[in-house]
Design brief:
Elements (H helix, E strand, L loop, with lengths): L3 H6 L18 E4 L5 E5 L1 H11 L2 E6 L6 E5 L1 H18 L5 E6 L5 H16 L3 E7 L8 H14 L4 E10 L2 E8 L1
Parallel strand pairs: 1-4, 5-6
Antiparallel strand pairs: 1-2, 3-4, 6-8, 7-8
Amino acid sequence: MFSFFEATSIQDTTKRVRVNRMIRISPVRVIGADGSQLGILEVDAALRMAEEAGLDLVEVAATARPPVVRIMDYGKYKFEMAKQARVAKKKQHVIELKEVKYRPGIDDHDFDTKTRHARRFLEEKNKVKVTMMFRGRQVAHPELGQQVLDRVSSQLSDIAKIESAGRLEGKSMTMILTPK
């Protein structure tokens, strides 16, 4: 059986649920432990029924008029909710921004290797930031860097689309690719 003190000491990451004596609004629509409708009753009568069954009275729909409460084992209910949250968290995929750096005078083999890494990142459903780094006077010829960025985007056009085109920021030019 659930007590009031347990509710205040346990930190719950799910939304706050009123249980037993915390339910103040009367009358309430009561649903039995087996899922059957027991009708609209006063809170005291519903609490008495829950205590007789050795279970808790849990508010499941606070915004409804009258509020809906259910006779159930609150500890088991909390465990199931936590389990559902864990499963949902496991299934979600956080999109990360991975970076691949190029130089304007990059050789073919280095270009292929870096582009292969970018392809792998895109296949893992991550965004890729392609950075063109200029050194010294190379920044005077951004068109050379733009050619390399265009070559990267054409190589990856089958699995990626350009989110932001290459633009010069200081001594580097960046382009962001997202998976299709």
